[in-house]
Amino acid sequence: MYKIYGDVNSGNCYKVKLLAEQLSLPYEWIDVDTLKKETQSSAYLEKNPNGKIPLLETEDGRFLPESNAILHFLAEGSAFLPTDRFEHAQVLQWLFFEQYSHEPYIATARYIIRYLGRPAEMEPALQSKMAPGYKALCVMESHLRDHPYFVGGRYSIADIGLFAYTHVAHEGDFALSEFPAIVEWIKRVRAQPGFVEIG
To answer: How many whole angstroms separate alpha carbon 13 and alpha carbon 36?
Structure first.
């Protein structure tokens, strides 16, 4: 049985949980509280020296950090990861986009508001996330106007990776109502077999 170390309200952890549920994988969820600095304990750092969640522990005791690497590992050989080389590369393209152009802005804005309570001293940092966050949403909206999903016309880990923080972007003060194609895509993702909500 896999072990997944994470916080159920974290988008990066949620994406791993969502895929595990949709694959019907047996796993043990181990709660890790980042606000209590549990990821910085010596016991946890032995598992992941980078001190981040999520973290996957395999049945043979190996550890794999980084949410999108975990998605790729778990999805291998399933319908969630295309076998066509170009489509496979497109999945990676969107996962890289999520971590570089999307998550640093949308997830961080949500963290400042939801986890930290929007402290006044963080307002300049919060505002600095808005323009690049909206740019990422615009890229997604443009693609989804002509495609039901991100790769190959079908649901994949590219969708799971981007769904995790996009569907809660309003918690970071982003107005999703301005993106009708994204709103409809969110509905399609929620309609997938085995879907579970965050938290």
So the answer is: 17
Fold classification of 85-190 (topology level): Glutathione S-transferase Yfyf (Class Pi); Chain A, domain 2 (1.20.1050)
User: pTM, whole model, 2 decimals?
Assistant: 0.96
Condensed to tens digits (0 to 9), the pLDDT of residues 146-168 reads 999 999 999 999 999 999 999 99
User: Alpha carbon 149 to chain centroid distance?
Assistant: 16
The mean predicted confidence, pLDDT, of the chain is: 97
Using alpha carbons, select from 132, 141, 142 the residue that is nearest to residue 183: 141
Residue 103 tokens read as: 């998550």
Instruction: Read off the tokens for 142.
Output: 């443009």
Cα 46 vs. chain centroid, distance in angstroms? Answer: 24
The bridge status of strand 2-6 relative to strand 27-31 is: parallel
Q: Give the containing element (helix H, strand E) for 55.
A: strand 55-57
User: What pLDDT digit, counting tens, does each position of 78-124 carry?
Assistant: 999 999 999 999 999 999 999 999 999 999 999 999 999 999 999 99
Which CATH architecture group holds 2-75?
3-Layer(aba) Sandwich (3.40)
